[in-house]
Amino acid sequence: MKPIGKLLASKAVAILGGAAGANLLWAPTALADAGHFAYSTDGGARVAVGLLLAALFATLIAETFHKTLAAGAVVAVMLMVSAATPLHIMDFDTAVRAVDWNVIFLLGSMMAIVSVLIGTRVFDWLNARMVAWARGRSKLLANTAIVATAVLSAFADNVTTVLFMAPVVSKAARSLRVSVWALAMPMVMAANIGGTATLIGDPPNVIVGVAAGLPFMDFLYFLAVPVIFMIVALCAFSAFWYRKDLAGAHAEGGGKAGSDAEPVELQDPKVLSWTLGVVGLTFLGFFTHSITHLPVGVVAFAGAVLTMAGRHVILRGPLGAKKAEHLFTHGFEHGIEWLTLGFFIFLFMAISSAEHTGLIAGAAAKLQDMVQAVSVGFGMGLQAKLLTAALLILVFSAVVSAVVDNIPYTIAAAAIVRVLVASFATEFTAAGLGGAELQMTTNVLWWSLALGACLGGNGTLIGASANVTTIGLLEKDGHHMPFVSFLRFGVPVTAMTIGIAALYLTSYVYGGAIETNLVGAMALLALGAAALLRGMNRRLPKTADETADGALSPPAGE
Fold first, then answer.
1. Which has the closest alpha carbon to 360: 351, 369, 368, 372?
2. Can you give the pTM of this predicted structure?
């Protein structure tokens, strides 16, 4: 399962930056951080951890227990096995340190801020504006939610994005009287796809950027084009998948959406103004993370405290001290999804065992053997060999990232990719390629790792933090999403986006990196122009002949 925060560079840099980190990837037999507990790294330990994680995954699919209880039970079993048998697969102190509290504070703090915004009815207001603007066109509303989520997720934490967007799409679905999942599921997919486009969009990109020394603009230049194609494909696929729901959409009160809807009045405008100001400062803190080096969890926590303290001061006068204090305690207890946070904490602990016993590093090492076996077995040329390696990395990363934490996997896989890049650089240099062109060519392996690790999260409910967060928020409102139902939509979307990524990587290798992006950009411009012309034609007034024909035609049903 993917951790839910963004910009987890501190952990990635610490591991990737030095020899100790490299040794950890290949020799995770080292003593635990406490210096007293030695993890077992033999085959038995890896099998035990693998079986327990598989059992957790099966339990989540069957929904036998609540996901938090299931994850907690697996952690308890790991601790008991370590205490009662020679298999040392979990050390409590190390497991607690493995929990990224920066991430937990980020998610909990943003939940608290969102709960304050919900109280001001700003999401109801946004929903009313969206529905009125769409004028009953449910597909347009769904596509607007997809595009807005993708853009926000490219430049901000995708969990923060879905925390803001989930209430909006929930209100919109209620207004249109359609299933909330017809809007929420595409929105979740868009959050994970959009986060793939930039260096700060998803944690694997941070790790890849650090490992390969790739700047922000390289990610934007080489990944934005395929990501935009994926968003276009997602809009089309979602419209087809939920065609019955969207076709039956109608606004509350009858008539066209927005025409008869009651106006929404914002509550506590002073609280809203204060909260939006704090949100702006919070996002500024996220964007300037590389300058201030403040953990994003600290920035979010400070924003949450300022938000709640400001609301308390503002409402203390008109409502009284007791009522203002009650609003704080109620929001703190019910506005934060404590069960969701607990699930992530237990999952961090369980995944730490897979990392320390060498299970993840061992799986990543298999990738190198597969590349070598395929290239030698088929006698491939240099370009075909490079593409084979890129596609294997892409698919393998997508599959693994759909079911396990992609942060330790990406860290381990980065060491493999670094070796492969060096090997291909030597071969291409011998073939006469050099300079910037050599680096651009071999960088395809880094792009394949980033694409696979980020896009794979759409495959399962636990594949990405945005998935778990959105499902948890909507389940609180009474909308249940079974694990298998998520798979029915998530797997085709993942396969579709991975297919687009594979086509992009193929063109990158055989057509050239710059040429591929230029052609892709021109194709996107052509698509945009066609869509604009189509929209303009729909808005053109009917001719006199068309009006007359319409007047002579009998009404439907007669």
1. 351
2. 0.69
